[in-house]
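Notebook, student rotation project (T.W.).
Task set for the rotation: take a protein with a known small-molecule partner, predict the structure of the complex, and write up what can be learned from the model alone. Partner molecule chosen: pyridoxal-5'-phosphate. Sequence and SMILES entered below by T.W., checked by me.
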Amino acid sequence: MNYPQTFLSEVQQQRQEFPGLINKVYFNFGGQGTLPRSGLEAIIDAHNVLQQQGPFSIKVNDWIRQKTELLREAIAQELGVENSTITLTENVTSGCNIALWGIDWQPGDRILMTDCEHPGIIATVEEIARRFQVEIDICPILNTLNEGDPVEVIKQQLTPQTRLVVLSHLLWNTGQVLPLKEISDLCHHYSQSDRPILVLADAAQSAGSLALNLAETEVDFYAFTGHKWFCGPAGVGGLYIRPEIFEFVNPTFIGWRGINIDGKGQPIDFKQDGTKFEVATSSYPQYEGLRAAIAVHNNWGNSERRYQQICQLSEYLWKGLSEISAINCLKNSPPEAGLVSFTVNSNMSHNSIVQKLENQGFFLRTIRNPNCIRACVHYFTLPDEIEQLIKAISAII
Ligand SMILES: Cc1ncc(COP(=O)(O)O)c(C=O)c1O
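Predicted structure of the complex:
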């Protein structure tokens, strides 16, 4: 791959920020990103502030409030939305749960979910269905990876009773990107229903990897995490809720962070911004870790530049893998993001291959459905690492 030397040294310099990249060749960003040094330092510094100034004091409480809002602002800027639309959560799944339990379900309502969702989200949808006599429809998106139109497939499955569509913006198993704006348009203007159909996007793989402008997509809920493509610490994520539907979503877990109180300390009502769904005490130093991680990425380039770089590198990996006769990349055209999924025709199982690779210092993962191996490249992955991986796989199989 021909990158100018100046560009490569810029990437090399950026990589110095990530201690997790030193001793391995890492392709598991879709599982968890490597925390930058400044993220770790920000977490430690925050703990020190809490201990020196508190841990509970007027000063510390002000400090926490200020840092929390700075994180909200950094996230909102990355997603192209107003700060007030962001709820800070722990992870993707808790954001999806806020949305799913927050809807005023009626018996007979239907949820349309793709056949590519994460087990934790499927389980939540199934429990909603059981508790509220809601029906689940599954739409076959997996088959649209290389042909067909996912929007058309979703359209075919909508009914007048459909209340919510649950999908992933970037599918975690195949790496397909779904056209979120077209899907939101379709659902909001579905003429056979007397109310707009809402869209919940699981953004586990898209937040921090795609260049996003959520306000433009008109998605209703966007649940994401900081610990994957943003490379933040585990335990901090968020949920975007479209302002137009905000008032119709009820909190399920409730606590002091989400309410207004009167002079006697009694609850009056819920806050009227994203904090409505925040509950109580969190591990605030982690917030500083995520904020520092986002700053590290932006120092290198904006989300558009990072996304372009991810796509160039994933295409390089995809091409290299496609040239190995025993490998079949699930996608038959270059990836639209950083996930490259493939099957290997070999006597060895995918698990054994991934285990062998990990023993040699290459970190990938298997996926169960469809049965495949997934490699993720980030914008700071080196072409040389991709070449090494391709050689290592060829030698193993
Ligand atoms: C598509 C998808 N949804 C949900 C999750 C769960 O993420 P979290 O642990 O942040 O809830 C993952 C994690 O791999 C994922 O890929």
